Amino acid sequence: MWGRTMRVPEAGGWAVEFNSVTRRYGKRVALDSVSFVAEEGSVLGLLGPNGAGKSTLLGTLCGLQTPDEGFVTWFGQNEHVPLPKALRKRMGVVTQDTALYGELTVRQNLRFAADLYGVSNPRKGVKEVADLLGITHRLDDAVGELSGGNQRRVAIARSLVHDPDLLVFDEPTLGVDIETRHAIWSHVRLLRNRRKTVVVSTNYLDEALALCDRVLLLKNGRLIEQGKPGEILARTGRYVELDCTPEVAQAAFATLDGQTEVEGLSVGESGLTVRLTGSADPNRVVEMALAVHHIEGFRVRAPDLLEVFQSLDDSLPQPQLTDV
Amino acid sequence: MSDWWAACRAGMRLQTQQFMKGPLLIVLTVVEALTFLALVSLFGLTGSKAPTALVVNDHSPLTASFVQDLAKDHDSFRLEPTTLAIAKQRLAAGSVVDILTIPKGFGASVAAGRTVVLPVTIDNVDTDLTDDIQRALPAAIQTFGLQHHFNGIRLAPVEHDLLSYDTAYVPYLVVSALGLDALVVAGALGATAMAGEWENKTLVQWRLSPSPMSGLLIGKLIAVVIVSTLAVWVAALLVFFGYGVHPHDAVGTLAALALCCVIFTALGAVVGNLLRRTLPVAIVFFGIALPLYIDSGSLEPERFDGHWLWFFGHATPVYAAVGVLQNTVHGLRVTPESIPVDLGILTLWALFSMAIAYLILQRSKAVR
């Protein structure tokens, strides 16, 4: 079983360090002086809307692109593109497109990857990663015949076949069903437990919360926030949805407007949305509303990705909420 | 170096597996080689003899002798004796291109030294056959006159051949066609193999891995060379045994075809890396194949086709390939350049194409 034989890297240190990295395409700045570190044995999430610079960042991290300014170090070594073979052997990458040979079987795809990375016992390596990803029973099926989710699993298996220390996953759960999504999450957690470093880009906030030790928030090539997901959420604050008629919502708006716990308010067809400050107690806000209005129901929720970005970056339009 | 060989083996195994997943492609590759052979054979066979309705109104021995000379005239007439009425119907229906009438009293008039008028009615819908008839009829008349020692004919050609043997048109064409086969089969397969990597975005795997890209590329192309060579060898066997062309140097011919497949596979890899889509590469190869074939000395030595055509012929490897193949099969030297020079040119083309294919891969920023 792969889990038993997987090599565990030495503890401590940084797997990757970006130091004021800038990357331009003509006049367009894809990455603007981005600095961060990915600690060894951690999962680093990369969040941002389309065009934020996630793929450019991952491309630079993989050595497919060269920074125009700044530098990147891998495992403490400042290297230049093309990256040395020894470093490439320590990296496993899953691209958005999966980049699999659809006409070949799962086994043949994994074997090719094993050949590319000079795996000493490719047959064993293929079996181990197939077992790990739960695709052993599909080893002799053509990849093109598999579902999107299973193709993702194959792509992840391929990235693991040479037992790398640093894994780069570009939106690994894009377009997969919820079951596969959770399966992929558990694989990522397993990798973290084995002290592998994982850098994962995603569009899903819940994924970042579920998986990542730290997250980077990118917008227009700029790093606008980084930290632990819980800390960022705490800074963003939670949301309370109050179910009521529009008339009651207007009245509740007047009641809650100006309260210290309240960051923003928005009246909608189905009621009132209240954005709380980071430290606010949602129960107190609900009690204030219930005391004077007929509220049919309520729920407390975390912000979605857009709301996080809106709260962190004032330049973004905020159509949903009226700031107090 | 062991890394390079390992990469080469990986690339070769990959392409072989891809071929094995689509055996129909291999079958179609062989069929393609044979259909191109058929295409050029038909080119040589069609339009060479004008279907001619012959209306004979005189039955003298001289008339019979003249008809024999018409029939023997090289690749000119397919004579179909008939009556004038039927001949007119057939000309109108388009089943003959002309009516040649031998008038009553032809033999007596010729014997008496009088000029005889030979009426010829021609369907000049395409001047190609019209031109053939205009050339062939005087030639037959001249042969007839020389044979019977008519007064007034004072010139007689005496032929001295450079070679001790003749090479017929179709046997010449089909040998050049093997060069065309190599171009189309190896070129299209090489181009498709590489374009597929771009199309499926699988090249990013190559780029990310520690394996040398040159090893992967060459390994993949070796598999293409093997398949295309086998396909072209099948066509060569058809030429040897089906067309009855006995090769001057059979082993040399097969080796030359293998070399052609190496060059054209490498050229295909360049095209595939440039176009990066499988559909356009097939169109490109089918589009360029015939012009390159015609301008390579495939129908006759290219040096006879005028300075500019000859000059452009040198710009493609097909010219040197046809030169080598005509030498190995028929023992001919159809290029002024020697065979070692032609082989050197072909080798340089192979190395140059491989280097370009590699550089495109290595330098392309699109491999992400």
Note poorly predicted spans of chain B: none
Helix content of chain B: 55-70%
The number of distinct helices of chain B, counting runs of at least 4 residues, comes to 14
Write the CATH fold name of the largest domain in chain A: Rossmann fold
Task: Give the SSE string of chain A.
Answer: HEEEHEEHEHHHEHEHEEHEHEEHEHE
Instruction: Determine the strand fraction of chain B and express it as a percent band.
Output: 5-15%
The description of the largest β-sheet of chain A is: 6 strands, mixed
Radius of gyration of chain B: 27 Å
Given helix and strand content, the structural type of chain A is alpha/beta
SSE class of chain B = mainly alpha
Strand order of the largest sheet of chain B: 2-1-3-4
Q: Strand-and-helix sequence of chain B, N→C?
A: HHEHEHEHEHHHHHHHHH
Low-confidence stretches of chain A: 315-324
Looking at the overall shape, the CATH architecture of the largest domain in chain A is: 3-Layer(aba) Sandwich
Mean pLDDT of chain A: 86
Radius of gyration computed on alpha carbons of chain A: 23 Å
The strand line-up of the biggest sheet of chain A is: 6-7-8-3-9-10
- The helicity of chain A comes to 25-40%
What does this structure look like?
The complex is a heterodimer of chains A (324) and B (368). Chain A has helices spanning 2-5, 54-62, 85-89, 106-116, 122-133, 148-160, 178-193, 205-211, 229-236, 246-256, 282-292, 305-312, and strands at residues 14-25, 28-39, 43-47, 69-74, 77-78, 91-94, 166-170, 197-202, 214-219, 222-227, 239-243, 262-268, 271-276, 297-301, 322-323. Chain A has 324 residues and is α/β, with parallel strands linked by helices. Chain A folds into two domains: 2-233, Rossmann fold, CATH 3.40.50; 237-315, Lrp/AsnC effector binding domain/regulation of amino acid metabolism (RAM) domain (Alpha-Beta Plaits, 2-Layer Sandwich). In chain A, the strands form three sheets. A six-stranded mixed β-sheet of chain A has the order 6-7-8-3-9-10, with helices on both faces. Chain A is globular, with a radius of gyration of 23 Å. In chain B, strands 2-1-3-4 form a four-stranded mixed β-sheet, sandwiched between helices. In chain B, strand 1, helix 3 and strand 2 form a beta-alpha-beta unit. In chain B, helix 9 (213-242) runs antiparallel to helix 14. Classes of the chains: A alpha/beta (324), B mainly alpha (368).
